[in-house]
Amino acid sequence: MIKNMLTKADLQYLLTQQEKLDKDIREKKGITLHDWNIELNRKHFKAMKIETAEFVNEMHDVWKYWKDKPVDKNKILDEGVDVIHFCCLIINKTGRIVDSVETKLLDEINLVASWYEFEKMKADDEEEVINGLQDDMLSKIVDVYEYFAHVLILLGLYGFTSKDIIDQYNIKNKENFRRLESGY
After folding, report:
1. Cβ distance 24 to 180 under 8 Å?
2. Are residues 76 and 152 in contact, defined by beta-carbon separation less than 8 angstroms?
3. Are the beta carbons of 72 and 100 closer than 8 angstroms?
4. What number of other Cβ atoms are within 10 A of residue 9's Cβ?
């Protein structure tokens, strides 16, 4: 089910790349570490939740019963990576070392995956379970690791791999740096 399990090296890479982007943003926008870690905290979580809604919207095949248009898997991956950007940003702010991040994320993935497997046994089809995962992301989750786990599992259910995630992250990260340079 989960073909996109990120390795410790993948997590280290994502967290490091995110910190480079965030450092550049802080410098270019004149944001102090205090403001970044304290004052902007709510805004970072809000941005993650908005990106989550955009991610779920792209997976309309399981909840927009009135829509016949097929999903665009590239948009699903793109929006999923947007959520991952904010997950990495928030995790970096905690100052956790990669080993503990990996352990916490694996624990959450295993928990969500076990719920998924249990719900799948009860459900008539996989779409119902995916819909449940989406609902949880939009309404119940408060922990960044749960968000990250849900994104990875949902991307895995759509057939994406860790390579797909890293490749798209690199594309988005390059675009974010370009935007920052252009005054976006």
Report:
1. yes
2. no
3. no
4. 11
